[in-house]
Amino acid sequence: MNPAEIPTTSVSELPTDDLVLLDVREPDEWAAGHAPGAVHIPLGELPSRTDELAELPDDRPVYVICRTGGRSARATAWLNAAGLADAVNVAGGMKSWQTEGRPLVGDHEGVAPEVL
């Protein structure tokens, strides 16, 4: 898929209700800080975890996010080509999520969440 053909949106344009967010970053990045309610499947594991992908809602877009937008663009292209989701890349990724002041949670108790 041509990069220009990958559906993309910005963090500021994301819906506030019923947001389905798929985070494709690595486990250490996820643990440091992620969006509340996001689903975590690292990019390299997508092909082997199609059963989990099939559980994502099919009545609305799945927004795919990584650190800055590169890995999520590849994941979006793959998900759409495979027919597994109506996927949309989130431009700027979690860095933009943080800049926009969206909530972050982390897995390390007593440590403020951050985007690696």
UniProtKB/TrEMBL annotation:
PROSITE patterns: RHODANESE_3. CDD domains: RHOD. It holds the Pfam family Rhodanese. Residues 15-106 form the Rhodanese domain. InterPro entries: GlpE_sulfurtransferase (IPR050229), Rhodanese-like_dom (IPR001763), Rhodanese-like_dom_sf (IPR036873). It comes from the Bacteria. SMART domains: RHOD. This is Rhodanese-like domain-containing protein. It comes from Prauserella oleivorans.
